[in-house]
Amino acid sequence: MKVLVTGASGNGGQAVCRELMNAGYTVRMADVVPTHSDDLQSLEFVRCDTRTPSDVRRAVAGVDAVIHLAAWHCAHNPPVSDETIFSVNVDGTFHVLEACRQEGIKSIVYASSMAYGWWSVYGVSKVIGEDLCKAYHEMTGASIVMLRYHEFIPRPYLEFGARLLRNGVDRRDVAAATLASVKAVLGRNVGLFRTIVHTDHGMPQDVVENFRNLGIGWCEEKLPGARRLIEKYEISLPEKVEQHDLEEAEHVLGWKPTVGFLDFLCDLKARDEKGLDVTNLWVPSELPLI
Ligand SMILES: NC(=O)c1ccc[n+]([C@@H]2O[C@H](COP(=O)([O-])OP(=O)(O)OC[C@H]3O[C@@H](n4cnc5c(N)ncnc54)[C@H](O)[C@@H]3O)[C@@H](O)[C@H]2O)c1
User: Fold this and answer.
1) Cβ distance 65 to 186 under 8 Å?
2) Do 113 and 69 touch, CB atoms closer than 8 A?
3) Ligand 1 atom nearest 50 alpha carbon
């Protein structure tokens, strides 16, 4: 099976391409720039600006499924203008879906976002993106999964750990959810399906609701030494943990997240025991140690 990934050279795109490659898919990468990662050099690369219909048509020709990740978001430095965000995220998505219709491709995964909503141009670009997916599902019968990823922007290691308790998700879970989705659309197991892609720490509800008071005790019980690590590295803890019900995703896609706060603490413990300096580490490039 051949899968096209748009935005393939980006942070999520590279992880998704690796996951597909390891699962035995033939991968075509499409982006405005090629990747510099050595392990992805053997994959086919198509230069494609999703704002240009002929580029997109060329990119999708002959594939069985499309994973559409190409987009700009608000966290780029230097920032991308709202005009560019709108045209890449909205026009680009329209061109990808339209090219799929023209080429008869009926298996599509769309990268939506937890930022879906009406309070920013980026957020509304994902509202329109999901609406376009719905329209193309109605018009063509395509099987489409829309994934509202939580945040996986590269950031310092300790910040990443603290963020897992809030809106953060590990990029490995993003890639695994995307692989599960492409399998579902290729198997025509879904019509139009949407899910959040977030973390699950396996915490009881009372700990989720009252993490400030109960969280350290729970972590210590699961991982002796957790309290010392949280205090030593001054990891900021939320009042309550952001936790969504991901049961439907498990049921429909067979996917559930695997990297939670305890996994981060295990990794931190291993680094701490080795006397490694974690203050200058970045995620995802330097994960996992263990
Ligand atoms: N990173 C996050 O925290 C996050 C959270 C929610 C949703 N998302 C969504 O996930 C997807 C991937 O995000 P990411 O963090 O990997 O982004 P990224 O910025 O790392 O990568 C985006 C890629 O898209 C490419 N691109 C930009 N304009 C293009 C165009 N016109 N044509 C073709 N390619 C183009 C870029 O060159 C880049 O390689 C996006 O749709 C994003 O909105 C990301």
Assistant:
1) yes
2) no
3) 32
How many Å apart are CA 51 and CA 71, to the nearest integer?
11
How far does residue 200's CA lie from ligand 1's centre (Å)? 24
Domain coordinates in residue numbering, the chain? 2-149
pLDDT, tens digit (0-9, with 9 covering 90-100), for 113-128: 999 999 999 999 999 9
State which amino acid sits at residue 19.
E
Domain 2-149 has CATH 3.10.450.350: no
Q: Which residues line ligand 1 (CB under 6 A)?
A: 6-7, 9-13, 31-33, 48-51, 69-73, 88, 92, 111, 113-114, 149, 151-153
Best probe residue, ligand 1, of 4, 113, 147, 151 (max atoms within 8 Å of C-beta): 113
Residues 5-58: pLDDT tens digits? 999 999 999 999 999 999 999 999 999 999 999 999 999 999 999 999 999 999
Contact 252, 184 (CB under 8 A): yes
CA-based angle 108:2:7, to the nearest 5? 60
